Amino acid sequence: MFKILAINPGSTSTKIAVFENKKLIMSENLNHSVDELKKYNKIVDQLEFRYNSIMGWLNENNFKSFDSIVGRGGLLKPIASGTYTVDDNMISDLRVGVQGEHASNLGGLIAKKIADIFQIDAYIVDPVAVDEIEDIARISGMPEIPRKSLLHALNVKAVAHRLAKDLGNSLEEMNLIVAHLGGGISIVPLQKGKMVDVNNANEMGPFSPERTGGLPVGDLAKMAFSGNYDLATLKKKITREGGLVGYLNTNDARDVEKLIEQGNKKAKLVYDAMAYQIAKEIGAMATVLNGHVDNIVLTGGMAYSQYLTDKIGSYVGFIAEIVKYPGEDEMIALAEGTLRVLNKEEEAKTY
Ligand SMILES: Nc1ncnc2c1ncn2[C@@H]1O[C@H](COP(=O)(O)OP(=O)(O)OP(=O)(O)O)[C@@H](O)[C@H]1O
Ligand SMILES: CCCC(=O)O
Q1: Which pLDDT belongs to residue 100?
Q2: Domain count, the chain
Q3: pTM of the model
Q4: Are residues 158 and 298 located together in one domain of the fold?
Q5: Three-state DSSP class for 148?
Q6: 197 in a domain, yes or no?
Q7: Which listed ligand is nearest to 206 at the C-alpha?
Q8: What's the pLDDT score for residue 34?
Q9: Which residues does UniProt call coiled coil (predicted)?
Q10: Which CATH number do you get for residue 271?
Q11: CA contacts within 13 A on the Cβ side of 247
Q12: Distance, CA of 128 to CA of 103 (rounded, Å)
């Protein structure tokens, strides 16, 4: 029996869970208020604060030993799917944020810091930087700017495996489109289990609760040179102040649905537009799979919404049957990835 601590830092919370093999023993969602976090200039500056919160929880609940610690991995260099040992090379890339800042950069850093106390190994599983996309999908139209694979890889892989298992099929024999509908949105065509393309939630695809998604590039270039923005401010506007936040001043889809129920026409137009853009991206990914799509999977927090999933379904239902796995399977996916290594079913990869 292996005891595993899983750590999943998100933009406003840190989820932690203790497993004995695959059995969940205890979990907690440590919420960090905007006020608490705003004093940290960069996400990596939150390391001590989040580490101390986790250690406090472990002490309160008398957890004194683990066999390994696993964290959600971040914006590393592009890498293959799998479980990776956190080593010095990875630590330095997580600290710098080689492909940018992301709360999940803290996952490997915190896991290593705690693992060092217990003198055990730390791992990450299927980080945001997993890259399985085809070369043809990397061409953007401007040689200086290749398209990148940044996505909710951990949950996308986990729900794809869950569907295959539920249907009694092998993922390697299926073609799926998984739409992770969270604070950011990843729409991913899986060809025989391989994630062959993705929108990249920070830069392209549909707008989401906090992000703009793809924008008209000419107008964006004009805005960038208007003299009103520096790079950091504009990036924040695109990734944290866009989408539902930009139009309706909330990142909570449930608030938007309340506004719609009260007859707010703007809220309905914007929310319907998000469903429309999600559906368009799913349609695009169906063409990537030459129309051979076994199922469309809707997952992430917004997949709880009947209104939104019905709207999306009204556009894309003709492509394939829709299956909903609302929320995320990330904590168990972290534990399972670690367990495969501890059980020696798989060797941990080196970054
Ligand atoms: N029952 C629900 N109905 C509608 N929307 C919901 C429901 N529950 C959660 N959401 C919405 O889901 C969104 C958050 O999804 P999720 O929790 O997957 O995101 P996250 O973990 O913060 O970010 P990400 O998934 O991008 O890492 C929010 O807009 C939230 O309002
Ligand atoms: C950038 C891709 C993953 C996310 O949206 O969090």
Answers
A1: 86
A2: 2
A3: 0.92
A4: yes
A5: coil
A6: yes
A7: 2
A8: 64
A9: none
A10: 3.30.420.40
A11: 23
A12: 10
Whether residues 266 and 120 fall in one domain = no
Q: Which of 93, 47, 87 is nearest to 348 (CA)?
A: 87
Strand partners, 5: 18, 69
Length of the chain: 351
Residue 142 lies in a domain: no
46 band by pLDDT with thresholds 50, 70 and 90: very high
Residues 311, 344: one domain? no
Cα radius of gyration (the chain)? 20
Q: What is the ipTM of this complex?
A: 0.97
CA 316 – CA 112 distance, rounded (Å) = 43
CA-nearest residue for atom 5, ligand 2, is 184
**Does 307 share its domain with 200?**
yes
Tens digit of each residue's pLDDT (9 = 90 or more) over 279-290: 999 999 999 999
How far is it, in rounded angstroms, from Cα 172 to Cα 189? 13
Q: What is the pLDDT of residues 68-91, one digit of tens each?
A: 999 999 999 999 999 999 999 999
Cα 153 to ligand 2 centre (Å): 9
Alpha-carbon distance of 13 to 33, in angstroms, equals: 8
Indicate if ligand 2 lies below 6 Å from the C-beta of 150: yes
What residue's CA is closest to ligand 1, atom 6? 302
DSSP assignment letter at 12? S
Say yes or no: CB of residue 243 within 6 Å of ligand 1. no
| Statement to judge: residues 13 and 98 lie in one domain | yes
The closest alpha carbon to 123, from 19, 7, 45, 43, belongs to 7
Q: Is residue 83 part of a domain?
A: yes
Residue nearest to ligand 2 atom 6, measured at CA: 184
Nearest atom in ligand 2 to 208's CA = 5
195 in the same domain as 101: no
DSSP state of 347: P
Could you list the residue range(s) of the whole structural domain that residue 264 is in?
Answer: 153-326
Same domain, 235 and 346: no
